[in-house]
Specification:
five-stranded mixed β-sheet; 14 strands; alpha/beta; 291 residues; D-Maltodextrin-Binding Protein, domain 2; single chain; globular
């Protein structure tokens, strides 16, 4: 070989380069159960702008909410200590790439399980069942999505509510942001006539300003929430699903629900809690079309 490189050295370098191209990203940021236990902490992506589910108050060092408590409980069951968790802020548009790249081990971030998302990552079994709704000002004439023609409705970029509202209200002016706090501000400022997303998120914003805001339109979708984990990370996925079973069976889930939603578990909660991701995705895709 030229430039003083022996054939043996060249072949060794070429072999190393070829092998490197085959190493998945996960090898550089291992999120397997064994790696998590060796590291001694879980890296979990959560929302910082969803009051009641995942919200970071000004001046606080850690977010609070339903999904934050759930994250601590999962960590407790996997690592034996609920404090062994590192939270990272995620938004709707970056949570899947972050788990694919190994930046986080998983996300618990009001994520609906859909067939399209199941092609990109794995999901845990269902831990919550939400439904899309509308938040408007108290004096708004809007009563349902059927009243949105010519109105400005705001939601998160890349979310399932964005896709749905285009289908059910094709004549609405849909405005999108990277999160829901800008939508909330746009509604208060009069730049938007309504916010649409899951009822769980809307309840949190309504409760911040209950005299001026109301929810309308009921629930017009089934939104099964799952915990996002990288494809192929079967050991961590099983550990998370086992933790969810424990959390449901020992009454912890009921306590978290009561604490953050101020109401007991619905009578039908066992019909969706623990539902497999595959069934949840199918049920989401095959729910009755709204007109």
């Amino acid at each position: 070989m030229n430039d003083g490189i022996s054939r043996r050295s060249y072949l060794a370098l070429a072999g190393s380069a070829a092998a490197a191209t085959l190493i998945p990203v996960a090898a550089f940021a291992d999120s397997s159960l064994a790696a998590v236990k060796q590291r001694g902490s879980l890296k979990i992506g959560v929302k910082y702008d969803n009051p009641g589910f995942g919200y970071l108050k000004a001046g606080d060092s850690e977010p609070t909410g339903f999904e934050i408590d759930l994250a601590h409980e999962i960590t407790k069951r996997i690592l034996g200590d609920p404090s062994k968790v590192q939270f990272t802020q995620v938004i709707t548009s970056n949570r899947i790439p972050m788990v694919q790249n190994g930046d986080i081990d998983m996300f618990i971030a009001t994520a609906t399980i859909t067939p399209d998302r199941l092609k990109q990552i794995a999901f845990s079994n269902v831990y919550y069942s939400a439904g899309q709704s509308l938040l408007v000002k108290m004096n708004s004439p809007i009563k349902s999505y059927q009243d949105l023609a010519g109105k400005t409705v705001c939601t998160a970029k890349g979310s399932t509510p964005e896709q749905t509202i285009h289908k059910v209200a094709p004549n609405a002016d849909v405005q999108t942001f990277d999160g829901y706090t800008p939508c909330y501000q746009a509604l208060l400022d009069g730049r938007a006539d309504a916010i649409t997303t899951d009822n769980t998120i809307l309840i949190g914003f309504r409760n911040q300003n209950p005299k001026d805001l109301k929810m309308v339109g009921g629930l017009f979708t089934f939104e099964p929430y799952g915990i996002g984990i990288a494809k192929g990370n079967d050991t961590l996925l099983k550990a998370v699903n086992d933790a969810l079973v424990s959390i449901g069976n020992d009454g912890t889930f009921a306590k978290i629900h009561q604490k953050w939603l101020n109401e007991p578990l619905p009578a039908n909660w066992k019909t969706w809690y623990g539902m497999s991701a595959e069934k949840a995705g199918d049920d989401f895709a095959n729910q009755p079309a709204r007109k």
